[in-house]
Amino acid sequence: MNLYRASSLYTPISPQNIEQQLSTRFKNEGFLSLTDLPNPSTFKDMDRATERIVQAIHQSEKIVLIGDYDVDGVISTTLMKMFFNAIGVDLKWIIPNRFRDGYGLSTNLIPRIETYDLAITVDNGIAAVEASKLCQEKNIELIITDHHLLPTVLPQAYAIIDQKQEDCSFPYAEVCGAQIAWYLIASLNKALKSQMDIKSYIGLVAIAIIADMMPLQHINRAMVLAGLQLLNRSTLPAIQAFREKLDKEVLNAEDIGFQIAPVLNSAGRMDDAKWAVEFLLSSNIYDAQIRLKRLIDFNNARKATEQSITDEALALVNPDDPVIVVVGENWHEGVVGIVAARVGKVYEKPTIILTHSEQGDLKGSGRSFHVCNLFKITDPCRSLFNKFGGHDSAIGLSLPKENLETFKKELQQNYLAENYNTMVVDPDILGVLSFKHIDFNLIGMMKMYEPYGQANPRPKFITNNVIIEEVVNMGKENEHRRFTFSHEGIIQQGVLFKTKEIFHIGQVVSVVYGINENHFNNRVTLQLMVEKIL
Rounded to whole angstroms, what are the CA distances from 289 to 208, 273, 282, 292? Predict the structure, then answer.
């Protein structure tokens, strides 16, 4: 049974019930502020790393920074470069190219950094065991800052700052690479007596927290709330260019998640992430506008490529498999993760999308769905892979072609052995809501718990016995629908994006939706953001 169709499992809900459920998400710590941020020294090796970097600055050593090609890595790199620029110290930076170099500090990068005295990683490096050995051989001192899970064997480094180390006293396990980069900047700022306004960097940090899907609780929520306020009055040319392009004076978390982050991400997916860093470092609005246009072109190309591959992948799915595995020819490596998420959403199953790589093996990404821990069921197949990594809900891997069938067979067995209960309700649906409860008071109460995102999802509801009074196609290719719904004599407007379904006036349905304010022609109305019509 489809988890949405189990509508009998959801109970009626009132505004009071909604507030109670939302408040329980913060019952342990409540709402924190920037004054609650832990001291940088609570990170293992933070003081050691700071002392070494200060020494390198005072002795005019050559320092190189290695970032990552996703938004978190791009922001981390930008923050470090901005700080070093502000204190007048030269810092060379490298973001590996996804297609030529692979991920993070790899052995491929060593020839490019062998003339440097000190190498610092941001948002990567914790798995760079082989590259770290080469750094040691070349007398390159290495400082690793990362936030990912630790491998069995750690790299050889002068200092490792990663909150997931057992002997690290930093109290929060789920923070992103840009937050750790910001903490390193804060530590350096104090040690160097630079007196830079490090709070001003939190606007960019907020983008990374949201883009890297960190839980929007504890200090993450505090930094995002403060960061949004800073972004909305930021004079940084890149942020001004974004606000201008989006025609928005006030940016919110959804703007970052659905508009800004995909544009920044597209450079690394389609070409080279350096374009995103250079955009963020733009020194004037004209340069920022030109560079933003390039990123938007990358994002448009990404969307088109992603749609084309998604259509091809959907045609190849075996719907009987518990875990979908699809292999394609010449699919763009930069978008297979997004395609996996889209195919998985259609079939409501965990999905892995693979393509034939230039190296002759199969390379791709997987995304989980619902309760499945994709990393857990894939990890036992590690001996079949050339490369493998990830976390509960997203993985990346490569494997020889001849191992594909064995992998698929073992993967399905591993999934079935977990005995996942696909009948479990969608935890984001708070309950069955009557249209009579949908008003501006409800919206006002829900705003108190913003920003919504990972671990604090925007509330969704289900309403049964809804009548479709009107349906209008929208979009260039009629891919969106606008509805007038009625329920118990009350009318609500709704919109459903990206659907090919046909709906009829008079149809009685159940609707799964969120609620937002629609600002149009100086009028504010309530609108149902429809996820599914059953």
Answer: 21, 17, 9, 5
